[in-house]
Amino acid sequence: MSNKNDEQVNDELENLQEKDAETGKDQELENEEMNPFAEMEAKLKEINDKYLRLYSEFENFRKRTAREKIDLITSGNKSLMAKIIPTIDDFERAIESNKSVDDIKIVKDGFELIHNKMIKTLEAEGVKVMLTNGEPFDVEFHEAITRIPAPNKSLKGKVVDTVEKGYYLNDAVLRYAKVVVGS
Length: 183
Prior knowledge:
This protein is an alpha+beta fold. The protein has helices at residues 2-75, 78-98, 104-124; strands at residues 127-129, 142-148, 159-164, 167-169, 172-175, 177-182. The protein has a three-stranded antiparallel sheet with strand order 1-4-5. A hairpin with a 2-residue loop joins strand 4 and strand 5 (172-175).
């Protein structure tokens, strides 16, 4: 009897092992069928993560650039202002000393020195005076205030007089010259 029981137990064990093997194969097939979706889902998560990181990086870049632009605008003229302040000091000293000076030539020379210093400071920053008298009228550089009869035929259509000087800043017009044109 014990042999028959042992055989039955062995048969049952074999049956169970066969069922487990079949179940394992079924699970492997299900896993293989689900695997492409799992791979696609993993790739989607990875791409989404990369997108979010890139988007955050771009937003940080945009904010940093905007801050830098504001800083440049607010402090862009700082060096120029620092160079002009000594000229203001010169004007203040000239005004103070002119209170006690009787010789007008000394006053004129002082103001001419200060003017030349201011021009040199501006030239060092790229500002140049626009030459206009005798030049052909050009709307790109000149603003016509009025037209007058040309004193001679060679000045017809040319600048006869400059009412207000024009200036360039690094070869771009900073201020248009206000001129009188001969007709």
